[in-house]
Amino acid sequence: MTKWSKRTNQIHAGTRRSQYGEVSEAIFLTQGFVYDTAEQAEARFVALGEDEFIYARYGNPTVRMFEERIAALEGAEDAFATASGMAAVNAALMSICRAGDHVVSSRALFGSCLYILEEIMVRYGVEVTFVDGNNLDEWAAAIRPDTKVVFCESVSNPTLDVIDLKSVADLAHKADALFVVDNVFATPVFSRAIEHGADVVIYSTTKHIDGQGRCLGGVVLGTQDFIRKTLEPYLKHTGGAMSPFNAWVMLKGIETIDLRVRAQADTAATLATALQDNPKIANVIYPGLSSHPQHDLAMQMTGSGGTMIAFDIAGGQEGAFRFLNALELITITNNLGDSKTLITHPGTTTHSRLSDEQKATNGITPGLVRLSVGLEDPADILADVENALKNV
Questions:
Q1: Do 243 and 107 share a structural domain?
Q2: Are the CB atoms for 317 and 369 separated by under 8 Å?
Q3: Judgement on whether residues 187 and 98 belong to the same structural domain of the protein
Q4: Are residues 223 and 335 in the same domain?
Q5: Do 296 and 335 belong together in one domain?
Q6: Tens digits of pLDDT across the chain (392 residues)
Q7: Which pTM was predicted?
Q8: Most exposed residue of 34, 59, 218, 371, measured as fewest CB within 10 angstroms of its CB?
Q9: Which among 219, 253, 287 is the end of a domain?
């Protein structure tokens, strides 16, 4: 598939047809696989041949189609699909590190990512240093000769800080550290993370890849050597595999991801521009606006402001709740990347376990809301936001 474009690969890459010649990908809803002889079983456990499988926790034809398709879309050598986005984050970090290793991470992260770094990894003897992701001097000071992993969200959740991936990658590689990037907000459509130096890229496929709020999933992408020799043994034995049915849903999602995400990003840009001067909003955060601190960097890295907007409602949490409760079209939920427009109040939901000090440091104000732009008519989304703001 290397001669085709990304948009074509998202339709065709990785396709395997059974003897029946089906058009849509088949769902191989099976836990195990049979062998013609005991000798064949023995040989397969020694070394898998092409399109050979042992057990669904290790691999499955439907899951493998998804892995190959998302790898082609991302420009990675290989991929391993997981049961959820957080299973992917956990596996990517834990498969690399052991007691005594050092990790450097940006401070602005999704709450569950912070939990893995602050609680789980530290509990098992991994030292973690947090930095301001937009301060290259802090990255340079924190990364040491013994640093094993450098980790960040390319666009942070929920405050939409944009990380200079190329510069951070250069610092990580000088120390021979692996640069691991959670790339959910950038999406595979706009991603150039590997081009900018990421060694490992992670997605929660629950978000834009499914795109319709149906199934949980995650995926880790990287070199074939990393995926097969470091990540696969960890996931095979800890059990965080994606189900064949969910993989099939993700395959169907990838077919339309380019059309969906580009339409969502266009609408997000329209909304962000329209809301800039609304007196009920203290601050609109959107990488596509020239007012965003990393606007130029975002345009260089992805060429788009993305599908997510954050804005600070006047009146703090009370004002934000008045606004949220007055919405008619937009749905209050903590998911994102859906065809429906979704909104949440991070301070009391996705980042509620953070202390007030941590929230303040990460820019999560009491009035901050995070909007995931969907596929509805842009005029309807804007009208719903503006009408709800009248209640603030």
A1: yes
A2: no
A3: yes
A4: no
A5: yes
A6: 567 888 898 899 999 998 899 999 999 999 999 999 999 999 999 998 888 999 999 999 999 999 999 999 999 999 999 999 999 999 999 999 999 999 999 999 998 999 999 999 999 999 999 999 999 999 999 999 999 999 999 999 999 999 999 999 999 999 999 999 999 999 999 999 999 999 999 999 999 999 999 999 999 999 999 999 999 999 999 999 999 999 999 999 999 999 999 999 999 999 999 999 999 999 999 999 999 999 999 999 999 999 999 999 999 999 999 999 999 999 999 999 999 999 999 999 999 988 899 899 889 999 999 999 999 999 999 999 999 999 99
A7: 0.95
A8: 34
A9: 253
* Domain count for the chain: 2
Contact call for residues 222 and 78 (beta carbons, < 8 A):
yes
Q: Is residue 1 part of a domain?
A: no
The span from the CA of 251 to the CA of 245, in Å, is: 10
Token pair in block for residue 100: 């005594």
Burial class (CB within 10 angstroms; exposed 0-12, middle 13-18, buried 19+) of 49? exposed
One domain, residues 282 and 233? no
Q: Please say which residue of 253, 282, 306 terminates a domain.
A: 253
Tell whether 279 and 225 lie within a shared domain. Answer: no
Radius of gyration (C-alpha) of the chain in whole angstroms: 21
Distance CA 65, CA 84 (A): 17
3-state secondary structure of 342: strand
Query: Which range of residues forms the domain containing residue 334?
Result: 257-389
Q: Are 351 and 364 in contact (CB under 8 A)?
A: yes
| Amino acid, res. 27 | I
Q: What is the DSSP string of 163-219?
A: --HHHHHHHHHHTT-EEEEE-TTTHHHH--TTTTT-SEEEEETTTTTT-SS----EE
